[in-house]
Amino acid sequence: MAQAASPTTTIGPAPDSFAAFSLRSFIHRLEREHPEQVVHVTEPVNPARFDVTAVLKHLELRRKYPLVVFDRPLDLHGRPCPLPIATNLYATRERCAMALGLRPQDAMLGLSLEYARREEQRIAPEVVDGAEAPVKEVVRTGDQVDLRELPIVRHHDMDAGPYIDMTSVMRDPDSGAYNAAFLRNMYKGPRKLGLHMSPRHNWQIVRKHELKDEPTPVAIVVSHHPAFYIGSLNVAPFGVDDYALIGSMFERPLRLTFSTTWGEKFLIPADADLVLEGHVLPNVREVEGPFGEFPGTYGPQRVRWVVELTALNRRSDAIYQDVFVGHPDNWMMGSFPKEGSIYNRIKGVVPTVKGVHLPISAVGRFHCYISIDKRVDGESKQAALIALGACDFVKHVVVVDGDIDPFREEEVLWAIATRVQADEDVDILKNVKGSTLDPSQRDDIMGAKMIIDATRPVRRPFEARIEVPAEAMGRIELERLIPPEQLRRI
Amino acid sequence: MPRIFWVTCPRCLKRFYCHYDDLRHTKWELRCPYCEHQFPQETSPRIEE
Fold this sequence. Notes:
The complex is a heterodimer of chains A (490) and B (49). Chain A is α+β, with helices and mostly antiparallel strands and 490 residues long.
């Protein structure tokens, strides 16, 4: 039975002095200030039998996207688990904005630009003693580590099993910089996980260790304040220390502590709820997958890496976190972290850009809507080409005029319907680097891109858009003319 | 998307797909995501490329 948060079904106050930086504190704040954003499922659920994702999917079909707390999940043994599950945290821009300390009303362009601003900053982390690190309240090592005691979620029908889909942290052996990235980890045994990586930063770190036949230390941060994960979505170059960048998301130093396995040689987030430690085994491979990925299709079964766990660290009242991959909870993470940097790049060339949006209708990655106050014909394509060059995920770009809000998809579609002639306003680019996870792409690397210029021409007269006069819109207050109870009812 | 091939599990007869370059015509045993049966691809009653 799902119910809105109430005094008897809340996550409870965060007891520690660093309350502002814990998952519990974030959920507690939401329950207090925005109770409509949180739902508790108080009946027992079996995450390994799709109970969790079935609830989320039902809500989605009703166009509801609350943060959902499952108070009584079963673990992989099938026994009641003391760790509740929190999921769907990132499914709305408003919650993502609040995770960064912004107001919900700043969730559109404001969130994108603020992310881009913080992404450029660095705040060196602070190292604290284990006695001051809530993540060290419960520590398990060796044979005491048992993943079956966790409520690991199985997400979709063809998934190879339950998966941990949060952030893995590795450390570059040359520079010492930490790299945090979302990586999927397939449950394979009490202390064994399968690991999939694309050839990006963590892949490079593992490669360096494998060339020396050395295991790669990895810390899987399963639960933490959402700002930690939002920070790990950055597109900074290899070598940038992600702990310092994530600190900028918190606007204060990220607190770290010695790991259980490697001590000071590898630091883990002190305020996390749950961190697993292990090694990526060198030059060991097993089959892994399939797994439902962000495009909404399954990544195929592959030959992938293996992780052997060495330690489990958690708060005594830890919450287990999960992302509903291939759904808004996951799509939102693809959009706003890139919007701000794309906007800034366009602004350097087309200063009249008004907004950039990667809609979740295109999984937060494949489509890009750009709004500009066009001064000369041709500027729209300039803006589009910059967006395509800035992010290889972006496949279709629609450029609209400044009177169109790129965050309102129906307006963008209206602009396409009324301002586009396909023989003049649509361009196709072939053999451009794309995304290997795009199911429509026939080549492993390259695909086609499209630019739709949905702007009015500057050089010839064009019909004006109808509008209710601004004077009337400002004078008429809806709440004064329609009683609140009627407004709530419609 | 990389090239894939569909496989039918010889035990439960459900279908899933695999990465072609990683697994097709290799010695790796495939693992059915539905029943966890591990099998050489030659024992699959149907492979679709």
